[in-house]
Amino acid sequence: MLTAKGEEDNKIQGLEVGADDYITKPFSPRELVARLKAVLRRAGPTDGEAPIEVGGLLLDPISHRVTIDGKPAEMGPTEYRLLQFFMTHQERAYTRGQLLDQVWGGNVYVEERTVDVHIRRLRKALGDAYENLVQTVRGTGYRFSTKA
C-alpha cells in the first residue's frame, strides 16, 4: 500500500486487510523499488518459467526452446512469442490488434495483416500434427485451442 495516511492505526488496518507492505508519503523511489523486489522474492518463482505442454508440443521458456514430439522445432522469434502467448492464453479469441499489442508490444507500428503472415509461419513450424491448434476465428482473429 502506498498512502499518505501514516498513523499506526492506518498501517495496522492496511496490513490486516491484505496489504503485503505499507509505505507512507513522502517516500524514496529507491526504497519503493527495494520493497517491491522483496515482495516479489517472497512470492517465489513465477509460473511463466514453467514449461508448457499441450500433447506432444512443449514450450520451455527458460531455455527458449520448442519441441514437437521430442524433436526441436525451428521457428523465428516472433513465432516463438506468438506461440508462448497462445499457449499461456488458451481457448480465447484475440483480434489482430490485441495480438499486435501483446506479442509485438504497444509501441510498434505494423500493419494488422502482419499477424496473418506470422500465424502462417507458426502453423508451418508446428507441422501437420499441431497446426490445427492455432485456429482462425472468422470476423475476429485467432485462438489457440485443443478443441476442434
- Uncertain stretches: none
- The CATH homologous superfamily of the largest domain is called Winged helix-like DNA-binding domain superfamily/Winged helix DNA-binding domain
- For the secondary structure, the number of strands is 9
Mean pLDDT: 89
**Percent of residues in helical segments?**
40-55%
Return the structural class: alpha+beta
Individual helix count: 5
Compile the SSE list and pairings.
Layout: E1 2-3, H1 8-16, E2 23-24, H2 29-43, E3 52-54, E4 57-60, E5 65-68, E6 71-72, H3 77-88, E7 94-95, H4 96-104, H5 114-130, E8 134-137, E9 141-144
Parallel strand pairs: 1-2
Antiparallel strand pairs: 3-4, 4-5, 5-6, 7-9, 8-9
Helix pairs in contact: 3-4, 3-5
Short description:
This protein has 148 residues and is α+β, with helices and mostly antiparallel strands. It is built from 5 helices and 9 strands.
